[in-house]
Design goal:
By secondary structure, this protein is an alpha+beta fold. It is built from 2 helices and 4 strands, in the order ββββαα.
Length: 79
């Protein structure tokens, strides 16, 4: 992961820059939420991103996905 895209949490752990902001927005996310977005590092995205909403492409969300969508005024995927 490029160092410029991360912030250190511990000596061996980093987070994506922007994910701790209020409201959170990953530095690698491009576009307008609710319209069209994409991850600019999708093929190199970190583990937490790979684990988040693993069935979203199938239109099936999980609670974490539903919370994120509600935060942006969007309906959960399974509604």
């Amino acid at each position: 992961m490029p160092v410029a895209l991360t912030v250190p949490v511990t000596a061996t752990l980093v987070r994506m820059r922007g994910t701790d902001d209020g409201p959170p927005r990953c530095i690698a996310l491009a576009g307008e939420i609710g319209q069209e977005v994409k991850c600019t590092i999708y093929d190199r995205r970190p583990g937490p991103c790979r684990d988040f909403a693993p069935f979203a492409a199938l239109g099936i969300g999980d609670e974490g996905c539903a919370r994120a969508r509600r935060r942006h005024g969007m309906k959960p995927l399974d509604e």
